[in-house]
Design a protein that fits this description.
Structural class: alpha/beta
CATH class: Alpha Beta
Largest sheet: 8 strands, parallel, barrel
Strand content: 25-35%
Number of domains: 1
Number of strands: 12
Distance between the termini: 9 Å
Strand order of the largest sheet: 1-4-5-6-7-10-11-12
Number of helices: 11
Length: 242
């Protein structure tokens, strides 16, 4: 299992939100590339980058992501605003390895299938849910559809994996929603990464001890910025799973 640190970008800075609310943004660094280098030095093999400006349609942070690429040698996931083939191509041009698509999965999954045909297996499904109901467009709109239902619909699109975020727990440090993550993974048949709520090593231990094998990793955000635990310890713990 992978411990995957996250960098959320807003106006070129590293921030964290509470439950996706932009007004709650707290700035942790003015130099995202230095944070990425720090995570690489700690042993991270993968980095999750979210472009919050692109997610809400107010621009993008592509130049910053290019700088991050220079300091992080591992795999970079990039999410936020990937809503057309042309945008996907530009996003890959920043040096990102994998692209997270959320809104398009809700509104036009067949379009995503065509993107996969054009660009290959570089797409990850992003399912962000509040009380089990998927939200999209930067978490501002509700689909009215349960995450498990969408997971079943996208099973055969050709996605590489799924990242599931429990919006109500995101940035709250209160623990992940392992049960819902496991259900989504079962419906989709795809490896799933859990995001949202990790606040202490005990939360990671619970994933290692109880999550099914199809759960392939966890995303770490605020807990690392707040010094709740070291990334090195998280990597060691997650890697201990048989």
């Amino acid at each position: 299992m992978l411990a995957i640190p996250a960098i959320d970008l807003l106006d070129g800075r590293c921030v964290r939100l509470r439950q996706g609310a932009y007004g709650s943004a707290k700035v942790y660094s003015e130099k995202p590339d230095e944070i990425a280098a720090k995570y690489a030095a700690a042993g991270a093999r993968r980095l999750h980058v979210v472009d919050l400006d692109a997610a809400r349609g107010s621009g993008d942070n592509h130049r910053i992501i290019e700088k991050i690429r220079k300091t992080f040698p591992g795999i970079i996931n990039l999410g936020g605003g990937i809503r057309s083939l042309e945008i996907a191509k530009r996003a890959l041009g920043t040096g990102a390895d994998l692209l997270v698509v959320g809104t398009a999965l809700v509104k036009a999954p067949n379009r995503v299938s065509k993107w996969i045909e054009a660009l290959g297996s570089v797409f990850i499904g992003g399912l962000d849910a509040d009380e089990g109901i998927v939200k999209y467009s930067g978490w501002r709109k509700s689909s009215g559809i349960r995450a498990t239902e969408i997971a079943a619909r996208i099973k055969d699109l050709g996605l590489k994996e799924i990242i599931y975020t429990d919006i109500s727990r995101d940035g709250m440090l209160t623990g992940p929603n392992i049960q819902e993550g496991a259900a989504i993974a079962e419906y989709s048949g795809l490896p799933l990464i859990i995001s949202g709520g990790i606040g202490e090593l005990a939360h990671l231990q619970a994933i290692v001890d109880t999550a099914p094998a199809i759960i392939s990793g966890v995303i770490l955000g605020k807990a690392l910025y707040e010094g709740r635990f070291l990334l090195e310890d998280a990597i060691k713990l997650m890697g201990s799973r048989e």
